[in-house]
Amino acid sequence: MQSLKDKLIQAGLVSEDARPGESAEQRATRLNKEHAEKSTKIASIVASNRVETKIGEHTFFFTTRSQKMRRLVIEDEVKARLEKGEYAVVEWPNQPDFPWAVV
């Protein structure tokens, strides 16, 4: 048996994150705040776990979320750890030169 909320969501009359008695402006403010908190948390995790990479002689190619190919020119050790899955390339927004980091 579905609840009324589930039925309204399924019918497309309300969104899943809507709360009763909340205006559209309050909802937008709440969602913006949650997004900012999540972005700050992710940025701090990336900054604290970032691996400093030096320019090396090996090229490592990766695909971004927008399906574009990018490359890193890195040292042998970092390349090996990326290939083993010990390191990962993640987005690190608001970086002027290169918005990705190795963690």
How does this model look, in words?
The chain is α+β, with helices and mostly antiparallel strands and 103 residues long. The chain has a domain at 58-102. The protein is 42% helix and 17% strand. The protein has 3 helices and 4 strands, in the order ααββαββ. The protein has helices at 4-11, 24-49, 76-84, and strands at residues 58-63, 69-74, 89-91, 100-102. The strands form 2 sheets. Strands 1-2 form a two-stranded antiparallel ribbon. A two-stranded antiparallel sheet has the order 3-4. A hairpin with an 8-residue loop joins strand 3 and strand 4. The chain starts with a helix and ends with a strand.
Question: What's the structural blueprint in terms of helices and strands?
Answer:
Blueprint: H1 4-11, H2 24-49, E1 58-63, E2 69-74, H3 76-84, E3 89-91, E4 100-102
Antiparallel strand pairs: 1-2, 3-4
Could you write a compact summary of the structure shown?
The protein has helices at residues 4-11, 24-49, 76-84; strands at residues 58-63, 69-74, 89-91, 100-102. The chain is α+β, with helices and mostly antiparallel strands and 103 residues long. The chain has a domain at 58-102.
Structural class: alpha+beta
Our measurement of the CA-to-CA distance between the termini, rounded to an integer number of angstroms, reads 45 Å
Q: What is the count of DSSP helices, taking H or I runs of 4+ residues?
A: 3
State the strand order across the main sheet: 1-2
